[in-house]
Every structure is written in structure tokens, then in C-alpha cells.
DNA sequence: ACATAACTACCCATTAAGGGGTAGATCGCC
DNA sequence: GGCGATCTACCCCTTAATGGGTAGTTATGT
């Protein structure tokens, strides 16, 4: 048998730490090496212990779970990190995944299921409670709605000007480039902002760059 | 008991159509109203029959599954559409979800599981084979913009403000976000523009986005 | 104790950008 | 011919952004 997985638990609820550690004991292949009651303390311990797995509570007073996670990753901690939470809010999940979580488990999952998910995370997969899968899909789909901006019919001139905008050029420069009056450029900018529902050239430029219209 | 779910199957493999239809027969709550062996034929039938559910093969010769799906959605077909496939390639999955799929099921799933997923899709959830969940997470994570500290020495505040700039925000909004005066934001902007040798916030924002500074 | 850097806040000024309008020229289409 | 879309150009005005200055506070290191 291989060495047990060295686990650190970060949660400000003593009772839940207790529950988790008992669950891990049951599974026998885990060794609890540390417990922390706050993000700061958890970060300290993580640096000192370099555990294989960190179980991290999302909803903590003071430093939140996602903040703690970000800090851990910034510090170069490469442990598998699983967020344990009662929240099924999409934004929490997406934020956690983006911040580098390896898993996202609901506290009310069955113990069996939790162990299975933890196991999945330890084997390199991203472990997410099945109830949350559709949330991920929704998050992806919402980005698709943003893409509908690219479906809006810009005229040839507007598209050209958006490209110059995405290069960071001022109205004056664009006018010189296209050999038209600056006022005319303003008209086109005004129209394209309205069509794409942007409130400023900066928003439009940022969007264009991020969507490869450079 | 409610009316059976009216199903259309689009797949160019006769054998698999057969298998699917038998599976649905078993479940009793489905009525197969049409079968198509190609994307074109499927679109025809979908328009005529307006089924409740469309099971669509991803890997078809000629018109692909995703193409067919896009066309169906463009035509205003509002049936639940589940892609059935052998592919576990992330890009296929992401493309399908983006194109408006309500589900994505692997052909080698157990019949029980397939029925459960189809049922989930019919109840408004996005049904995705559990094996694919981590792919979705990965897709999301790759879009996570990693902060790349540039070699130029920006202060902490300037870096923070550059991020907001890269989000297209105005001085006023940034000030509100950071809870400082708009004039102070202007100072920081002025300083960072000078340090990075930009002539406008748009140039800075465009550069920041292109260089992955969220 | 002193110097420095960073953050804050305000003063001044000019230019850039955004939002509304009218209007002429050109082109394709019913 | 008339209609609508597009591109052009100008009018108006308000707001946003930029570039310069001084200056107080805090923290950090010499």
C-alpha cells in the first residue's frame, strides 16, 4: 500500500473539521497532518507542511475561501485543493475553479460521494459535486451570449474603425488613417457603441482585443 | 400519466438508431416520432415534427452534429437537444454547449445513466455525462487570465487600477470600486501611463488585455 | 532622525470623447 | 421614382480624460 495522503483541513467551524477528520479516518488512506481555523493560519500551515491535499471551507469569516485559495496558489502551493461549501451559487463555483481549485464539494453530500470525489481529485481530475455540473455549463453558455455581440451587424466602416480602436488609436489618428474628418470618426464610433451596447471606447477596445479582433 | 415525450433521432448509423429507439421503448415514457440519417434530413424532420427532444449524433459524415445543432437553433427550433457521441474531446463538448446543446452524452454510458441524463435534460437541466464534468472545468480554467507581472515597476495600486482599466472601466467607476476620490484615480492613471509610455488609457487597456492582465 | 516611496487629495488648465441633431451624396432594391 | 442604408460632414453641448502643480499622511529603510 502506498503512503497515506497527507491532508490539511482549513475551516473555521470546529465541528465540521471534526466531521471531516472522522470521515477521512474511516477511509484509512488519509493522514490528517494539520487543522486550521482561518485562512491565514491555513496558509501558514500549508507552507510548513506542504500537504498532498487541502480541504478548504469557502465560507469563512475574515479571509474567504477563494481569497485563501488564490493566495495559496500565488505562493506556489501545489497541493490538490478542494473547496468544501454549502453554497451552490454559480459565481462561487466559477470563481473557485478560476482561482485554481481542483474540486468543489457540497457539505451535504453523502460521505461515500465525498470520498469518491476526493479520490477523483487526487487522481488529477477536477472533482465537482454532480449537482453543480449544470452550473458550469450555464457559466459557459453565458459567455456564448456575450459572443452574440459578434453577431450584431456592424457596417464595413464600423468594423474597420473598431479594429483601429482595438489598436488603441484616438479619433484623430483614426481619421488621419482613413482620410476622413475626425467628426465622422466620432459618428461611426457613436453608432458602433450603440449597436454593441458599450458605454465607452475602452469597453469596446477591450472586448475587441479579447475576442481577437486585433 | 403525462403525454409521452416526442423524440427525433438524428444519426447516420442505423444500428445505433435502432439501439437508441429500443432504449427509449424500454422507458415507456417516450414516443419516437422520427428518424433521420443525416443533418439535412434531421433539420427537415425537426421543422415538420417539432419534437420535444432531439437526440443528435455528433460524428456524422457531411453535416456535423454541431453544425446541425447550430442550424436548428438558428431556425428557432426549441426542442431539447442532446448530443450523443463517442468523443470526449473538450473542444467538442465546449462547442456543443456554446451552440446551445441541452446535454452531451457518451454513447458508451450505461442505458440507465443515459435515461437519467435524458430525463434531467427534459427537466430543464443541462445533462452531461459525469466523466465529462472535469473537461468543462478545464475549459473554464483555461480562460482564467493569469496575471503576468510585467518587468516595469508599477506600484500595487497602479497594477490594481490597470486591471480595472483592462475591464473597460471609467475613472469614476474605478474610484467607486476602490473607494477613493476620482481625482486620485486620475493621478494613478497618469503615473502608470507615464511609466508604461502609453498615450491614452485605451492603449494601456488594449495592451493589458493582450498581455493577459485581468 | 531623515529620506524615500507610495497613496491620498486637491488646484489649475487643455484636449478627447460622448450624445444629440440635421443633411447631402451614393448605392442597391422594390 | 421612391425607400432605406451607408458614409460623409457639420452643428450643438456635456462629460471624461489628460497633464501640470502642491501637499499631507503613512510606512519603510538608512
Q: Which features characterize this protein?
A:
homodimer, alpha/beta, 214 residues, elongated, 6-stranded parallel β-sheet, 10 helices, 6 strands, Rossmann fold, DNA-binding, Arc Repressor Mutant, subunit A
What does this molecule look like?
The structure is a homodimer of 214-residue chains. By secondary structure, chain A is an alpha/beta fold. Chain A has two domains: 138 residues, Rossmann fold (3-Layer(aba) Sandwich), CATH 3.40.50; 59 residues, Arc Repressor Mutant, subunit A, CATH 1.10.10.10. Helices cover 54% and strands 14% of the residues of chain A. Chain A has ten helices and six strands; from the N terminus they run βαβαβαβαβαβααααα. The mean pLDDT of chain A is 84. At the A-B interface, helix 4, strand 6, helix 6 and helix 10 of A face helix 4, strand 6, helix 6 and helix 10 of B. The structure holds a DNA duplex (30 and 30 nucleotides).
